[in-house]
């Protein structure tokens, strides 16, 4: 079931709307959900939310299409003995089995024999009790989170530099800056609303500069004044060079450095020294440019721009974090801000954009295996005592637990015998993800809490627990600028689904632990807020009064949110922590930190960190000569369990692809449109070759979203090397040596049908859902002739056994072409197009026929060619998902109406006029169309 949505903000304003928060990226946009009389919901941006002021990107706009119950896990399930089927059980049976299994294994093998693997999708309250259960009651820190995979290098970098995991800046600083540097961040696609905020300011203040540092020419580069396409893994060299440049040109804040920092001399020495391979890279700009493979003039321009611009914000995201040197990359950036004193003031500072909606909330409660709750540390006895005393816990983990990659290694080795996975899909998302499969296959007890029944990970579950999804759950999340927002339920709990916090507390109680008798998520939040203020020397006047000597100062502090009560919690407005208490009353939130120049290290000073450049762990070689980079596409989220339901989002990128430079493709024996096998020493996957993604020579890019539920063999996690940063444990998702080979097939094809086809004789498939149809891209190893008559094969594909079915066919055996269309009462029911070559008719017009009750004469004439005989009917692949505008429509309008700007396209076709995520693609189409016109002239 899916519900059409309205995308104008006015839609929600007319009725009572529930204010909640988008569940996708770390921007944390406010959402208004308004019930319609037909049972659906209109989704719109919350005009009053300070993250987005009413705007939503295309993923947020399509939330209404993702809340249907198809595919949902609605009842607890347990697997029959000996790997049998999953069957429905009562909650009591399921909870007893989880608690009993964990209890027995802890008793027999000790607390470190069990683990939780949780998610940045959880709400803070869920996260809090999960962490409390493991670290304070089970007595093990074997709880890690999928946030390990996206931002743990930033956590480690912040802790080294500031003494605490603190993001010092806010979104408004992006608008106040005169220079925004985006490092390893395709902001246009991954944090679209922040991208729009930057664009808007840049249009208003054209002197504001944007520099993008990224090996790829991404959509974000379309608005950049300067793109530095550095060689993958050379970020530390680039920012060490900047540190040298700033120091040598006197672009420093000596007073700030002397009074408020330590370690500058060591950092400068490291920046000036040779790398671990012995190559001298001291500040010789030409040599630095050569090492980073960027134009020396461009590098000099960037360094000069940074040196002379006071208000600089440097944004970093997964391109920095997901590296075996991720923490050093973060610190090499922060070093430059410390040297210039550009921190703690409006319009300046280092800014980590988080990937997930509540990665930050997880950091606050200690959801990582190496942190404790409330920004306290596991490896500090005093910190452990503070938390244990507050909880009144029977135990406290005494050492850091296993981080994600090593946690799954321990499962495979049998050291961890029970794992409870909550709201995440590690068989898709972990590096070397076939290892995760092996681990779960041999694990004694695998419990999965999820909203979706069928995932690659749930296939290994012994017990499945149905959790509440977005729209049903209630609690808080924290976005990239430390802003806590409420997520509020506007839908009833479906089936027997329960809140994650409730499931965790019920299991804790059954394990015999007191301390989990929470009646509501508000009570959990209150405990979380009280712990943040407990013995916090940054919290004058509240609970810690009189215990200052025994306190630990930390910026994270929710003292002003203690005692909200259910009404205060229900009405809580978005607020940035710290929220302290002043004169006995809650102070307002805090926009930016360190304006007092006081950091969280014991001496109150920030630290420069010496960051010697080092090469990625695994280098390309003759067998695996290319470097694999992974990331997101514009309209999908994570493993597609939610965005994959949206018809609106399905049309932009319909298939897993490997983007590569045409010359590399030539050397690999593939060309655009071919299927290719991308393989590494760890695993392999199959994807469609494409050019045009701005790939430099030697690198390929594959998106992270596709998995075994939507494609035959497209899990890129299986290919990614499991190397991690030694400090943060974050995997190296951006740099795996791979090779690309042609994936040989005898035929290519696609099908569109009202029901899923039978895929027995298909080697390769990938699926998207559309309006009233399901579309499969297909390919086969064995020639169709081996399957006998092609018509019989096609009928079997769709399960059509009526000899008198209205079946239109075309076949050209010489060219290896076969096409068939099946009609029922003049309505299209199924169609399949096959060819010996990958070139096939466009799918969009054929797909549009599924919306018709009856094909007319013109449709019937065109249907076997896959082309409308009517002008303009084939809109082409989707560019603007918000308004469903295709490439052909846009290119035709550009040509025929002489459109010159993206704004003119918007005025003409609406495309780009809602979320703006497609504007970089509109600009590219303007250029491409003009080039085509010139070459035809
Ligand atoms: Fe959601 Fe898009 Fe906002 Fe991210 S930018 S929170 S995906 S609406």
Automatic annotation (TrEMBL):
Class of the enzyme per the UniProt entry, highest EC level: oxidoreductase
GO cellular component: membrane; oxidoreductase complex
Superkingdom of origin organism: Bacteria
Keyword tags: 4Fe-4S, Iron, Iron-sulfur, Metal-binding, Molybdenum, Nitrate assimilation, Oxidoreductase
Biological process annotations from GO: cellular respiration; nitrate assimilation
The 4Fe-4S Mo/W bis-MGD-type domain, residue ranges: 15-71
Keyword Metal-binding: yes
Cofactor(s) listed in the protein's UniProt record: [4Fe-4S] cluster; Mo-bis(molybdopterin guanine dinucleotide)
Range of residues in the leader sequence: none
CDD domains: MopB_CT_Nitrate-R-NapA-like (cd02791), MopB_Nitrate-R-NapA-like (cd02754)
GO molecular function annotations of the record: 4 iron, 4 sulfur cluster binding; metal ion binding; molybdopterin cofactor binding; oxidoreductase activity
Keyword Iron: yes
E.C. no: 1.7.-.-
UniProt similarity note: Belongs to the prokaryotic molybdopterin-containing oxidoreductase family. NasA/NapA/NarB subfamily.
Protein name (Swiss-Prot/TrEMBL): Nitrate reductase
Source organism (scientific name): Paraburkholderia rhynchosiae
């Amino acid at each position: 079931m899916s519900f059409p949505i309205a995308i104008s903000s006015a839609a929600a304003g007319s009725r009572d709307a529930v204010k909640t928060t988008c569940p996708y990226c770390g921007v944390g946009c406010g959402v208004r959900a308004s019930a319609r009389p037909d049972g659906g919901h209109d989704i719109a941006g919350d005009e009053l939310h300070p993250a987005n002021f009413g705007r939503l990107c295309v993923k947020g706009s399509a939330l209404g299409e993702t809340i249907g119950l198809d595919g949902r896990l609605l009842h607890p399930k347990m697997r029959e003995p000996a790997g049998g089927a999953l069957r429905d059980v009562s909650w009591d049976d399921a909870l007893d089995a989880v608690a009993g299994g964990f209890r027995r294994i802890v008793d027999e093998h000790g607390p470190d024999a069990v683990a939780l693997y949780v998610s940045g999708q959880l709400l803070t309250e869920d996260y809090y009790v999960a962490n409390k259960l493991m670290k304070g009651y089970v007595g093990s820190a074997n709880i890690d989170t999928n946030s390990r995979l996206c931002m743990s290098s930033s956590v480690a970098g912040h802790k080294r530099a500031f003494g605490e995991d603190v993001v010092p800046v806010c979104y408004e600083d992006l608008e106040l800056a005169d220079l925004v540097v985006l490092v390893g961040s395709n902001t246009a696609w991954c944090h679209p609303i922040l991208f729009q905020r930057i664009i808007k300011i840049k249009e208003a203040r054209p002197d504001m500069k944007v520099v993008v540092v990224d090996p790829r020419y991404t959509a974000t580069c379309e608005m950049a004044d300067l793109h530095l396409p550095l060689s993958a893994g050379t970020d530390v060299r680039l920012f060490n060079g900047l540190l040298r440049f700033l120091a040598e040109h006197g672009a420093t804040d000596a007073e700030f450095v002397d009074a408020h920092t330590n370690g500058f001399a060591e950092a400068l020495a490291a920046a000036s020294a040779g790398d671990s391979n012995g190559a001298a890279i001291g500040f010789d700009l030409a040599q630095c440019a050569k090492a980073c493979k960027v134009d020396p003039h461009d590098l000099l321009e960037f360094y000069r721009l940074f040196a002379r611009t006071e208000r600089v914000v440097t944004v970093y995201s997964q391109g920095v974090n997901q590296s075996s040197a991720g923490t050093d990359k973060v610190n090499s950036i922060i070093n430059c801000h410390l040297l210039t004193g550009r921190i703690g003031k409006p319009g300046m500072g280092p800014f980590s954009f988080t990937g997930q909606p509540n990665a930050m909330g997880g950091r606050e409660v200690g959801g990582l295996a190496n942190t404790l709750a409330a920004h306290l540390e596991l490896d500090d006895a005093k910190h452990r005592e503070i938390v244990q005393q507050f909880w009144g816990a029977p135990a406290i983990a005494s050492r850091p637990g296993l981080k994600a990659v090593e946690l799954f290694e321990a499962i495979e080795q049998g050291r961890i015998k029970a794992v409870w996975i909550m709201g995440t899909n590690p068989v898709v998302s972990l590096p070397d993800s076939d290892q995760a499969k092996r681990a779960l296959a041999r694990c004694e007890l695998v419990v999965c809490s999820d909203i979706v029944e069928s995932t690659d990970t749930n296939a290994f579950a012994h017990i499945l627990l149905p959790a509440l999804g977005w729209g049903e759950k209630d609690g808080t999340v924290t976005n990239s600028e430390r802003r806590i927002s409420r997520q509020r339920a506007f839908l009833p709990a479906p089936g027997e689904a329960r809140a994650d916090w409730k499931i965790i507390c019920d299991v804790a109680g059954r394990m015999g632990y007191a301390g989990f008798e929470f009646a509501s998520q508000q009570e959990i939040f209150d405990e979380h807020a009280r712990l943040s203020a407990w013995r916090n020397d940054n919290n004058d006047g509240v609970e810690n009064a009189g215990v200052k000597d025994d306190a630990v100062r930390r910026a994270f502090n929710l003292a002003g949110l203690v005692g909200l009560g259910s009404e205060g919690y229900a009405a809580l407005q978005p607020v940035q922590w710290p929220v302290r208490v002043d004169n006995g009353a809650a102070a307002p939130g805090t926009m930016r930190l360190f304006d007092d120049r006081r950091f969280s290290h014991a001496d109150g000073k920030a630290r420069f960190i010496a960051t010697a450049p080092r090469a990625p762990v695994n280098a390309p070689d003759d067998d695996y000569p290319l470097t694999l980079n992974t990331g997101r596409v514009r309209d999908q989220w994570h493993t597609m369990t939610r965005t994959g339901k949206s018809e609106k989002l399905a049309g932009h990128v319909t298939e897993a692809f490997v983007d590569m430079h045409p010359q590399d493709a030539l050397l690999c024996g593939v060309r655009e449109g071919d299927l290719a096998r991308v393989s590494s020493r760890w695993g392999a996957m199959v994807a469609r070759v494409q050019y045009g993604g701005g790939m430099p020579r030697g690198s390929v890019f594959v998106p992270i979203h596709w998995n075994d539920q939507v494609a035959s063999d497209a899990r890129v996690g299986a290919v990614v090397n499991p190397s991690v940063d030694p400090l943060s444990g974050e995997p190296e998702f951006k740099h795996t040596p791979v090779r690309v080979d042609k994936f040989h097939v005898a035929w290519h094809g696609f099908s569109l049908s009202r029901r899923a086809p039978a895929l027995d004789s298909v080697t390769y498939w990938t699926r998207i859902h559309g309006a009233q149809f399901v579309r499969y891209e297909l390919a086969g190893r064995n020639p169709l002739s081996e399957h006998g008559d092609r018509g019989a094969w096609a009928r079997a594909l769709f399960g059509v056994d009526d000899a008198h079915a209205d079946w239109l066919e075309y076949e050209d055996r010489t060219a290896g072409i076969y096409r068939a269309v099946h009609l029922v009462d003049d309505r299209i029911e199924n169609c399949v197009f096959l060819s010996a070559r990958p070139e096939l008719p466009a799918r969009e017009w054929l797909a549009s026929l599924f919306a018709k009750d009856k094909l007319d004469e013109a449709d019937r004439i065109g249907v076997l060619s896959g082309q409308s005989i009517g002008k303009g009917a084939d809109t082409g692949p989707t560019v603007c998902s918000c308004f469903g505008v295709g490439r052909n429509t846009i290119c035709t309008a550009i040509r025929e109406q002489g459109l010159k700007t993206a704004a003119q396209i918007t005025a003409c076709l609406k495309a780009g006029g809602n979320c703006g995520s497609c504007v970089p693609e509109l600009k590219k189409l303007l250029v491409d169309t003009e080039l085509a016109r010139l070459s035809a002239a």
